[in-house]
Write a structure and sequence with these properties.
By secondary structure, this protein is an alpha/beta fold. It contains 6 helices and 5 strands, in the order H-E-H-E-H-E-H-E-E-H-H. Helix content is 45%, strand content 20%. Strands 1-3-2-4-5 form a 5-stranded mixed sheet, sandwiched between helices. Helix 3 packs across helix 6. The radius of gyration is 13 Å and the shape is globular.
Length: 137
């Protein structure tokens, strides 16, 4: 686990956009288990590709007129139980951080894994997210 003083600004990059942090496994289930509509789930992380690509892409995509009903995040490597529980909703995908998922009525509809984030620009990732928002939201 990382010192929370280093993680807090990384958490705030998403929470200041209205993304709700899920810090425990119970928080995850309370939000996702019976979710209706669309839910964005960001598996945040401390790595450079989260800072340079994933979080800025989410911020940009959320400026789109069409967006998910609920915005959620877990922090890999920090909120371990919450992240493990969130990953149970991402069936068919290996653990990946950062990653960005869109669930519709609690079922996975769209997924960006680390390999689809790392090495790509925030603009490219944002376009992928906006396309998913427009298709599923």
């Amino acid at each position: 686990m990382y010192d929370e003083r280093f993680i807090t600004p990384m958490r705030q990059e998403l929470t200041r956009l209205g993304v709700e942090e899920l810090r425990t496994a119970q928080d995850v289930d309370a939000k996702l288990k019976a979710a209706t509509g669309t839910t964005l789930l960001v598996v945040n992380s401390m790595c450079g590709c989260a800072a340079r690509n994933a979080r800025p892409a989410v911020a940009s995509a959320l400026a789109n007129a069409v967006k998910p009903d609920q915005l959620t995040t877990v922090f890999a490597g920090q909120d371990i139980e919450a992240t493990a529980q969130a990953r149970t909703y991402l069936t068919g995908y290996a653990p990946s951080s950062p990653s960005i998922a869109l669930l519709k009525d609690g079922k996975l509809a769209f997924m960006l894994e680390r390999y689809q984030i790392e090495g790509r620009s925030a603009d490219e990732i944002s376009k992928d997210l906006v396309g998913a928002f427009e298709q599923y939201c």
